[in-house]
Structure formats: C-alpha cells, structure tokens
Amino acid sequence: MEMKNITLRFGGVKAITDISFNIREGEIRAIIGPNGAGKSSMLNVISGFYIPQEGEVWYKGAPRPQMKPYEVAQQGIARTFQNIALFEGMSVLDNVMTGRLNHMKTGIFAQALWKGKAEKEEEANREQVEKVIDFLEIQHIRKTPVSRLPYGLKKRVELARALAAEPSLLLLDEPMAGMNVEEKEDMSRFILDVNDEFGTTIALIEHDMGVVMDLSDRVVVMDYGKKIGDGTPDEVRSNQDVIDAYLGVAHD
Ligand SMILES: Nc1ncnc2c1ncn2[C@@H]1O[C@H](COP(=O)(O)OP(=O)(O)OP(=O)(O)O)[C@@H](O)[C@H]1O
C-alpha cells in the first residue's frame, strides 16, 4: 500500500499535511507520534473512513478509487479501534463471528434456493472462526459475554474479530493502550505470531516506545500532521527531529 502526498483537513484544521509513505507486503509498520500528531486520522484514511482532500491511496499496485469503508473491508483490510468496539452483551464467539460478515455472500433468498451452498459457507465461516479462537487462546471464554471480560481479553477478542475476516492488511489502533505489562507482552506475542503464521501485513499505532521498537520492521513518525521520520526502529531512534519532537523541543 502506498500513501502519496496525503493531505486531510477538518474545516480549518490540517490533520495531515502532504504525507507519503508505503506499507510493504508482510511487514509490521508502526505509525507513532505525540498526541494530536494525526496518527488516527492517517489510519482512518487507510481504512477508507476519511477521504483526503489531496493525495492518492494506492493499494495492490493501483490507485484506490473513492470507496465506502465496507468496500475497503471487502478488499481485505480489517481494523481494531482505540476504544473497544465490541457487542458487550454478546458472547465472544458471536462477536468473532461478526468478523465474517464480509464473507457471507449467500443472501436469505439464495439460502432458501440453494441450501447446500449456504451450509458450505456457514461451515467455512465456523472453521475460520474456530481457527482464530484457538490461535489467540480464547477457547475458555468463547461462551462468555464480552461485558464480563477484563480489558486485556476484550482487546484480544477485538483482534480475533478482525482476524476472522482473514485480512491481508490489519490495522491496529493502539492495541496495547491501557494494558498492564503482562497483557502487553501477550498482545505483542500474538501480533508477531499473526504476522508470522498468516503472513498478515500489519500497520499499527502505538504509544509504548519499547513495544513499537520491538515489534516493528519500519516506523513512520508524525508530528503536527507532518512526517518527520521514516525508517527502521534504529534509524528512527537516532533521528534528531524525532528526538526533538518527543522531548517537546519548541518548533520555530
Ligand atoms: N473528526 C475531527 N474533526 C475535527 N478535527 C479533528 C477530527 N479528528 C481529528 N481532528 C484533529 O486533527 C488533529 C490530529 O488528530 P488525530 O486524532 O489524528 O491525532 P493522533 O495522533 O491520533 O492523536 P492521539 O495520539 O491523541 O490519539 C488534531 O488536531 C485533532 O484535533
């Protein structure tokens, strides 16, 4: 995926100014930056939730036309949210199942006409869901309503739902926010395993520098809507603009 000269405005506020960067197939790419830098806005541009006023999003080698978020999802892009967005009253299993909605092609009428086809689809959906539930080690809570789960597990269920969609690009908005050290370690391991095992490309926003530097292949750094750094964790760590931004050095 390639972001080319993206500019995004909200009225008079420029959230993103002329930013370009790419996400290579199979990599873990982090977007970092101080509060209000424009990271969530950028993730929303990637997911098709915001349409930038300027610039182009290229996906799989071609410019992506203006699309609705569900159409972007159908192209294999799934995401999790900064604030957990699960159905609290529903079980873990049912929540993860909602991740398959994009794969449910057989409508109600078709189901009535071709029962066999619908059954096959249902089976494939169940299989993928069970695979993800096993992979993320949440079998023991599959029947539990999400509202009863501790925070760290809710975040894992959100990851499970996104993975159930079998995305080729997975967007994670602060996957470790609010977690304790142990939960962060678990989540890091799962993210690395997902990348390894399924070959899923991952773009994530994360505030915990230790986590970002350990997980990512490459990092984009934003500050005040601009890109100030882009490279491997080591390159970014030694970039003077990045150091200044994080130490809060005044802008000219
Ligand atoms: N829907 C919106 N309407 C108006 N302004 C917005 C909107 N979303 C973001 N902004 C503004 O755009 C800028 C970038 O915000 P954004 O949330 O993308 O930053 P961020 O880096 O994700 O911040 P944080 O780390 O605090 O989540 C901020 O000045 C913010 O106030």
From TrEMBL:
One of its GO terms (cellular component) is plasma membrane. Coiled coil: none annotated. GO terms for molecular function: ATP binding; ATP hydrolysis activity. The keyword Nucleotide-binding applies. Residues 1-249 form the ABC transporter domain. Keywords: ATP-binding, Nucleotide-binding, Transport. Pfam families: ABC_tran, BCA_ABC_TP_C. InterPro entries: AAA+_ATPase (IPR003593), ABC_AA/LPS_Transport (IPR051120), ABC_transporter-like_ATP-bd (IPR003439), BCA_ABC_TP_C (IPR032823), P-loop_NTPase (IPR027417). Transmembrane segments: none annotated. It comes from the Bacteria. SMART domains: AAA. The keyword Nucleotide-binding applies. This is ABC transporter ATP-binding protein.
